[in-house]
Design goal:
It is a single chain. The protein is extended. Helices cover about 15% and strands about 25% of the residues. It contains three helices and four strands, in the order βαββαβα. The protein has a four-stranded antiparallel sheet with strand order 2-3-1-4, covered by helices on one side. The protein has a domain of about 60 residues: Peptidase S8 propeptide/proteinase inhibitor I9 (Alpha-Beta Plaits), CATH 3.30.70.80. InterPro entries: DUF2129. Belongs to the UPF0298 family.
């Protein structure tokens, strides 16, 4: 008897959050809310990925922390990324034959010494 086991890997939907800080000393506190992907020491911000289902609650908690200057939410998941209906089909990108013929001419490169 053979048993087939199908394990499906579920990737949680995530959203990024840019956290601008006064000081980078408390960067470890951000790790409890989500994954810290990037930290800019010069500009004092961190890029944090949060799970979509608790994004609003976590972002409000992060915004209330004393070392956070401001936060910027990512709106990329809200934007429709399928542009096929907006711009038309592939025919829109085909070269248009406008009736003009292109004639290539050979050009010689002349040096200034030989002129």
């Amino acid at each position: 008897m053979q048993v087939e086991v199908h394990h499906e890997l579920e990737v949680p939907t995530r959203r990024s959050l840019v956290v601008w800080m006064y000081s980078l000393r408390q960067i470890r506190n951000l790790r409890r809310y989500g994954s810290v992907l990037y930290i800019s020491k010069r500009m004092k911000y961190a890029l944090v990925y949060l799970n979509e289902e608790d994004f609003d609650a976590s972002s409000e908690k992060i915004e209330r922390l004393h070392f956070v200057r401001k936060i910027e939410r990512s709106y990329r998941p809200d934007i429709e990324m399928n542009f096929a209906d907006k711009i038309g089909t592939k025919r829109a990108f085909q070269p248009v034959d406008d009736g003009y013929e292109v004639e290539e001419k050979s050009t010689k490169i002349r040096l200034a010494e030989n002129v």
